[in-house]
Amino acid sequence: MTAFGKLIRTTAFRLTLVYLFLFALFAASLLGYFAWNTRRLITEQITTTVNAEIGEISDIFGRRGLRGLVLTIENRALRPGANLYLVTTPAGQAIAGNVGSLAPGVMATTGWSETDYRRLDEQDTADHRALLRVTELSSGFRLLIGRDLEERRRLFGIVANAAQWSVLIVVVLGLGGGIFVARRVLRRIDAMTGTTQRIMAGDLSGRLPVGRSGDELDRLAENLNAMLERIEALMMGLKEVSDNIAHDLKTPLTRLRNRAEEALAKSGSEAEYRGALERTIEESDGLIRTFNALLMIARAESGQARGNMDNFDAADVANGIHELYEPLAEDDGMTLHVKTEPAPLHGNRELISQALANLVENAIKYGKPVVAPQPLGADAVAKAPSKEILIEARRIGDQVQLSVTDHGPGIPPADRKHAVERFVRLEASRTQPGSGLGLSLASAVATLHGGDLRLGDAYPGLTATLAIPALSAHDGVAAQTHDVPQKVA
Amino acid sequence: MTVTDTQMRLLIVEDDRESADYLVKAFREVGYVADHAGDGEEGLSLADTGEYDVLVIDRMLPKRDGLSLIGSLREKGNRTPALILSALGQVDDRIKGLRAGGDDYLPKPYSFAELLARVEVLSRRHGGPAEETTYRVGDLELDRLSHRVARGKDELTLQPREFRLLEYLMKHAGQVVTRTMLLENVWDYHFDPQTNVIDVHISRLRSKIDKGFERPLLHTIRGAGYMIRDGLR
Q1: What is the DSSP letter of A76?
Q2: What Rg do the C-alpha atoms of chain B give, in angstroms?
């Protein structure tokens, strides 16, 4: 398509053409109305003055006779810009007036007529047009009084001229404006098209140009940019996840392979082979766990797990998990407490139990107090490091909060967002076994239920809270499980 | 093939040849009679004979999928216990499997020890004695009605959960019970804890029922799970 073809196909240009036509029509009819009215007014004016003068002169004829009439006519005919006058005898002979020649037969009929004439004093041969009235005076004399129509013609000419020009100006300005607007829009659309094509080609960092006018195109561009931002974030998340999966699954797979190879290479005793095989099975069990956790997260994030939701009390979940993990914590030299109040919610009990279990496992693994070296002269009554972990189920407003608080080193505020990501194992935890998926799963479960996972400070220590919309007394089934805000991966 | 009455008969419906061969061989090694069907239709006609103690059925099969196989068996009144194997290990999938008439559900990949333990429990449930009110293993006695546990002359005090754990172990005395089976049946959780949380409960229970007694009853079966058994039997 040529540039011009593209231009005249734009919406802006087509709209311009429509408006152009409407405006031209409007201008023409306005001027037409003006011209017609002016003409009517002038004609009316002429007839009024001519009628008045005829009355006046008939009167003079009646009072002063033919002589008075002729004198008056001759007198008036000499005034500058005078009307047309002609007096004829009953035989048709002109005896006074300023009319040189007339179209034949004008004097024969009385009343109004429009006709060509020539003045007496004029040398040229051009005819003029006049509006005139012929009346018969008594005793067969006829009187003609008329008015030249030149004025009316000139006025009409001016109006016609104005009409021509105004239509021309409307067309030129309209076309020019249309082309300007269309080109401007076209340029911006072209820029957007170019950007989107680059983005489609794979450059996700491209953004649409946004002007400063805040018009509809800018708003559209802003919205598209926000969408691109989100897509890019999702793509980055996906890439990060697949990189992490590649890394965190390949590492144990490599270990597995190395062990098998090593066992094959050296001729060992049966016990050694056994040991190698047992470690292989252990390693593959770990891999299977990682896979299961990943699948669970994916399922929770995509919202597939909504099928199995029912109403239950988060306090039961907290008590159940406390009961399950209490001996384990004690074996580790820690104390696991639980504090609950009724906190009904609608959700997937299994997933919420697992999320809470992950938080408790983390607290047991990483929540041991650090014995910080006391600076000299420090407060003598510094609190003894607490080895307690507290599971809490509370209802706060329209939220159910399931939290696990430990008094370990905690997570620095800067790392908290990061800690929830898949496979992230903070520096301090690298030495401990684990898949690095515990918090991710907890977070995905919270998101699935329309809530979120919050990591906070317990001064010292970490409070991890699953905040989930509570089941309100009247709605029975929570509607809030739909329209879940997406977690930015 | 002659089949004695004491031998357990098993039907494995699995379309992957290699897995099926492995299972048939492994079950035969532990003394089972194991038959194999390669698709859902064959599996249905074999299972229909009613000659099996337990069915091990893959969820996704050619010609007729595992759930529909179990469904039509149940419609015909065939109550042979069925264990579903599935690559889909999710909670709602398991519920679907159990609703379709399956008796147990094991996600792939699984260990043979886990499968074997579950198959044994299923077969026991199928033809075993009715639920008793008192379980006895050696000199350990558990009364399910009065919730009393005694070993010899000593009355033992157990926490409610410890009681249920012991109850489950004693109900399946002489059988291997895996950690996942305990987690599922005693705690009703179907997820896989990353830590040895069950082991700690077992060791607590063990310290109550075995500590100070000459003959231990609660045994750890390496690579599989736990078993309660009178060692001399």
Answers
A1: H
A2: 19
Partner A, chain B 21-80, Cβ-Cβ below 8 Å: none
Which residues from B are below 8 Å from A361, CB to CB? 193-195
Best mutation target among A278, A328, A359 (most B Cβ atoms within 10 Å) is: A328
Residue A332 sits at the chain B interface (C-beta within 8 Å) = no
CATH fold of A3-154, please?
Answer: Beta-Lactamase (3.30.450)
What averages of pLDDT result for each successive group of 10 residues across chain A (489 residues)?
75 84 86 85 90 88 86 85 85 82 80 83 71 84 86 82 85 86 83 84 80 82 86 78 74 83 80 83 80 76 70 89 89 88 86 88 81 52 67 88 85 73 52 64 84 82 86 52 41
Instruction: Give the bridge partners for A463, in sequence order.
Output: A405, A456
**Residue in B217, B126, B105 with CA at minimum distance from that of residue B170:** B217
Q: Which of B161, B155, B129 is nearest to B209 (CA)?
A: B155
Dist CA A208 CA A89 (whole Å): 93
Q: Which residue of A has its CA nearest to B161?
A: A323
Q: Do A350 and B109 touch (CB under 8 A)?
A: no
What is the reported pLDDT for A48? 92
What is this model's ipTM? Answer: 0.80
Q: Which pLDDT score, from 0 to 100, does residue A481 have? A: 42
CA separation for the pair A264, B44 (Å, rounded): 43
Dist CA B103 CA B81 (whole Å): 6
Tell me, yes or no, if the two domains A3-154 and A278-369+386-475 fold the same way: no
Q: Which CATH architecture has domain A278-369+386-475?
A: 2-Layer Sandwich (3.30)
Of residues B209 and A125, the one with the higher pLDDT is: B209
Mutate to test the interface with B, among A274, A308, A359 (most CBs of B within 10 A): A308
Q: Do B89 and A295 touch (CB under 8 A)?
A: yes
> CB distance A350–B190 less than 8 Å?
yes
pTM: 0.62
- Measured CA to CA, the distance from residue A188 to residue A209 in angstroms comes to 8
If DSSP codes are grouped into helix, strand and coil, which group holds residue A250? Answer: helix
Domain boundaries along the sequence of chain A: 3-154, 278-369+386-475
Portion 122-181 of B in contact with A at CB < 8 A: 161
Alpha-carbon separation of residue B105 from A258, A305, B26, B98 (angstroms): 33, 18, 19, 7
Is A362's Cβ below 8 Å from some Cβ in B? no
